[in-house]
């Protein structure tokens, strides 16, 4: 018959469980905050609601995040801006041509961000940025500018290799951003209440956009060549 654990062992196990729970709390709070920010918006989301959804007290939330604004910034970093270093390295290591890279970037965006709750952050910022200029400046610095830079590098790679025609790369960035922003808005607005049989297929939509975009970007062979 196995021996019963000693009091010291029980105490150690309880302490370890508490420590594991403590370590998990920031992630649980960020997950709860993302859900509520996307569902209700920044202004309408209250700190106590986030704490309740995460299963902790409001005081516990403020042990980890000093304000609702700092909580929002942490949500953005966890889900988007904190991944730019990884995405930049992936771009640098990509071995295919620029056509393949462009298609990979746009479909990967949908898989990793667009199809997740994190895409609702874009809609939130579009609707509430004017009321929260500090958060708008933060989002511009940590998401918009690095994101634009990644797209710019993809386009410039194609131009430099001779695959893409010469173009105004700065405005070319918005050609790629447009379908992403449309899908983010659609997914968190009309897409929530559209009948299933009429629902837009995001992957098919992106592929159609990419196919048409590439018709304009690719260098065309000269007539008679």
Provide a count of the helices. Answer: 10
Q: How many whole angstroms does the radius of gyration measure?
A: 23 Å
CATH superfamily of the largest domain: Tetracycline Repressor, domain 2
Helix/strand order, N-terminal first: HHHHHHHHHH
Largest sheet: none
Average pLDDT number: 88
How many individual domains? 2
User: Could you please say which CATH topology of the largest domain applies here?
Assistant: Tetracycline Repressor, domain 2
Percent in helix? over 70%
Tell me what you see in this structure.
The protein has 225 residues and is an all-alpha fold. The protein has 2 domains: 62 residues, Arc Repressor Mutant, subunit A (Orthogonal Bundle); 138 residues, Orthogonal Bundle (Tetracycline Repressor, domain 2). The chain has 10 helices and no strands.
Secondary-structure topology with pairs:
Elements: H1 7-40, H2 47-54, H3 58-64, H4 68-79, H5 84-93, H6 98-114, H7 120-128, H8 133-161, H9 169-187, H10 202-217
Helix pairs in contact: 1-2, 1-4, 1-7, 2-3, 4-8, 5-8, 6-8, 6-9, 6-10, 8-9, 9-10
Structural descriptors:
Tetracycline Repressor, domain 2; Arc Repressor Mutant, subunit A; 10 helices; single chain; 225 residues
